[in-house]
Structures are given as C-alpha cells and as structure tokens.
Amino acid sequence: MERLREFAKTGKAKETAERARVLLDEGKEPDSIMKGALIPAMDEVGDLFQKGEYFVPEMLVAARAMQRGLEVLKPMLVASGVEPMGKVLVGTVKGDLHDIGKNLVVMALEGAGFDVIDLGADVPPEKFVEAIKEHNPKVVGLSALLTTTMPAMKDTVEAIKAAGIGDQVKIMIGGAPLRQEFCDEIGADFYGPDSTTGRNYARDVATGEA
Amino acid sequence: MSKYDSKMTSRERVLATIEGKPVDRVPVMLWPNCHAALKCMAKIRPARERVWNALGQWLWRKFKEGGEMDAKEIWRGLPLLFFYYAVNEYALDLGSDMAEVGYGDAGYWSGKRPPDVAGRTAGSPGALNWLAEKFNQPYWLENGGLRATDFAGNVRAVGGIYFDVVEPGIKNIEDLANFRFPDARDDKHYAALRKFRARRPDVCIYASNFGVQDLPTSQMMNMSNFLTSMIDYPDEVKKFQKRFADHMIGVGIRQIKAGADVIFIYDDYGYTGRTLISMDMWKEFTYPHLKRMIETYHEEGAKVMLHSCGYQMPFLEYYVEAGLDVLQTFQPKAGNDFARAYAEYGDRLTFNTGIDIQLGEMITPEELRRSILESYRIGGGNGHHILGMTHMLQYTMPVENMRALFETVWEIQAGRHD
Q: Cβ of B35 under 8 Å from any chain A Cβ?
C-alpha cells in the first residue's frame, strides 16, 4: 500500500495502475486500497500544494496517476457496492471557456472519492439547474477566471435559488478574480481560493460538518 | 518655470522614468480592453477619431441592448475589432503616455482550413460558408457560431467577449515537436507599427511580443497538457521553448527596427498568492529565455517590459538580475506588496502599476481614488514608476468607478496631488 501511495503522490501513472492491480491480485479489497492508499496520497498532495511544496504541474501528474489507479479499482468498487463520498457537480460559468481551475477541482474531488459530474466550460445557468435536478449532488462548484464572467456566477446562484433547489445543494465558487466579499454578495455558500480548500469543503458537506 | 511647464514628450517621459532620470510628471499607461474602451467612449470621453468613435458608441449600444453577455455573438464579438485601437489611439485619447502596437498581418495569425470543415458546416448553410469554401478561408459557421483556425491550428469561437480557443491545435508532444511557426520575416508584418511610429513620433510605443511560458500553455497547447509535458518530456518542451524564443526574438528585432521603444513580453507566471510552476522549474525552463530576450532587445536598443499576472514577489530578484526594465500589472489582489517591492527594487526596476482594476470593480469610487493616490505616493515622483493598470480595464467596472479612476489620473497628470 505504501508503494502505491508513493507512486500516486509522485505522479507515476503507469506504476500506480500496475501496483493497484498487484494489490487486487493479492486479495486486497478495492475499498481498502482506495481508502488506504489513493485517498491518503491525494490528501498528501493537497497538503503539499497548500504548503507551497507542490505546484500545478505536480498536482496534475499526481491527479492523473490517481485516475489510472481509480480506473483499475472502479469496476470492483461498483461491483462490491461501495458508495462514493457523494456527488459534486462542477462547471465553468457562461461566457468563460477557461477550465484549468475547474479541472484541478475535479481532480481533487475525484481523488477524495467523490463522484464528479463535470459540465465543462461556458455552462449557462439553466444547464446547472437541470443537472442539479437530474443528479441531485450535495455540492455544486462554479468556476470563473474572468471578471467579465463573474456576473454569470451571480446569475447561476440566482437561477438555482429561483428553481427552488437552493436548499438541497451547497454552492461553492472559485477562480482567480474572486473574493470572499463577492461570495457573500451573491449568496453562495463557500469561496475556495484553491482546489484543496474546495475539496475540504465538499468533504465537510458530505460528512455533515458544513 | 515649474516642472509642470516642461515640454517633455510622452516618449521622453517614459524612457527617462525607466532610466531613473528626472521627469516632469509620472508617466501613465492606460490599458482598456476593447469592450471597456467602447463603454469609455460612450460614458467617459469620446474618441478623437470620429469614425471610430461613432462605430464604437454604436457597438456599445448594441452590446448593452443585447444584454451584454446575453447579446448575440455578433454584438459580443464585433467589439474585438477595437483590440489594438483601444490600447493605442484611444488609450492616448484617455491620457496614456504609452501605446501598444501588435505585429503580424491576418495571414500570420490565421491558420489553415481544417479538412473536416464540410462536416462542421452541415448544420449552418449560408453565404459565409459558401464564400469561405470558395476562397479556401480558415473560418466557417458551425451551429450558427463563427469558428476560425489560428496560427497554432487552434479552433476558436466567441466565448463571452473573447475569441477563445475551443479546440487546441497542438494535442500532444509530437505535435509540439513538429510545430512550425509562421514566417514573420516580411516587412508587411510590421507595417502597422512603422505607420504608427511615423504618425506618433512623440509617443512611447510598446510592441506586443510573447514569452515562452504563457502563450504555449494558454493559446497553443491545452494548459494541462503543456504543464504535465514539462514533467513527462522536459527535453522536448525545452527544445520547443528555445524555438519559440528564437521566433519571438526575430519578431522583436524587427519590431525595434520598425520603431518600437519598448518590447512588451506577455508571459504570465503567477496567480493568486502562488507561482504557477515552482521557482526551480521556472529557473530551468523559462528564465534562461526571458534573460536571453531581454539581453537581445537591449543590444538592439529597446527597453523591455514584462507583463505577468498573479503573484510576482519571488521573481523580482531574477527580473533585476536579467536586466528587465519594467514589470507590468503587479496586482495587489494576487498578494503583491508594491510598497515593499518598490523599497527593495525601485532603484533598479520600474513598476507599471497602481491603478487597481480588480479591486476597483468592487469598491466605492472614493476608495478607488484613495487607492490610486496611495500607490502614486509610493512611486510617483520618486521615479521608476509608471502609473498603470493592474490588468486590462474591463467593461464590468461601474461607470462611477471608471469616472473616479480617470479623473484621479488626470488630476495626477495636472500636478494636483504633488
């Protein structure tokens, strides 16, 4: 398990997948591999990022390795009826085609065991509303890189509330131009300055701590 | 004679500031994006050129009437025609001492018509598609929206108010290794710059150029792919960055010969509170090329201004070591401390900053005015400071804040805060 954790943490995708297969062949439960190696590896990656020891490229390769490991485990996890941490819906708001920040959040959430529905970029408010109704996520994450698309974030929060589903989902927002004051102003539940903070918030929501 | 009676030209004022020589007043660089420029024409100050002004005000009305980001693609996209006019002629109209001029004709920036275009246009018959096909042009209508390929083979579309990449042309490391830059040697690519120089001999012209980190990640290869390739294929990425820098240096030398005073290297290295890549990685991949570009442009007789968004504090000592003349934006929102940076490096590096665009959208006009004056008191008359914007001015800034911003700048220019 320790080797798998190290492979994932250091972004060795091929080795991560191979080691996950070996552990399965040795009879380890997929859920214990996930909780004992992959999730702790991504937690460590998040901590290293917050401490300023990891940067975006290291995060990306670690997340990619985690994905390869997950691909090996997923069929077994599904077959054994293991439930994900919860569902999170994410997307970059209307008018904004930038997706790197959103992608980092997706990777951090998947690394924490969430089932993530990624709506992509340039997502209009009504599409967020439809997707919330369809997937019933615990958290919805809105991303924007441009100050010009921040109003679309406000429109999306308003659309979710107007659709009467504001109480069933927590809304977190993130992106370079944002601030806590903007989050308060538009009535979102949480502002995350980075992907790790967003992941931690989603985890708190899933465990009932937020 | 007071210093406000002096007859320094904008060009003299900027260049003297960069060299740490006395000036009559702080130089100013105003940097509106196209949509913000249209709003300013309608609400703050008309453009001097009547045709551009009328067109600008009409486009602003159509954009507003259409609901801004809800407006039809044509009304969101057409203001992009003002891309350079906003940062040169109109910026000067607003009181800027500096004007930006690009390079490359339409042929340089556009790409080839993709082989699968027939399938893409199936749902959008029309005259534009017929004409584009007949004349083998790299644009088409797809599902009612305009698409075009650019120099890097990217497919672009109007997303929000920009013509953004929707499908990257360079998909993997092999594509990156095989990429061929468009030929930029012909004089025609610098004709606009030469004309602008002839028309505006007294203005400081800064010519757009690109560094090796941001354009490849944001406009050529998908950012995630490029950043992971730096770890997976470091040698191939370095080879590409060397070719990229060689190409841009060729462009820069021609820009200087065509009349540029300052080469303006766009290259984002940071974001909020962080550097995008580690300092070790930056020193290994990016810094050698930045230094080489600066040295070459200096040898050719120009100054060098770097645009880099986001957190900049750890880079400052390297900028100074490389001989960089001007650092532009220096955003407080990203964690940069102008007072501290200026106290430590303000005798060797000119800071182009002080008009906080990000914060300026969210605070009161009076708070914005105070923040500009506060920055001016840090740099201003002490030299090595160009009073400039911390990013391109956006149309989303409330009009009262825009008014406070420009009035404060004009008061500073008139010497009312000395």
A: yes
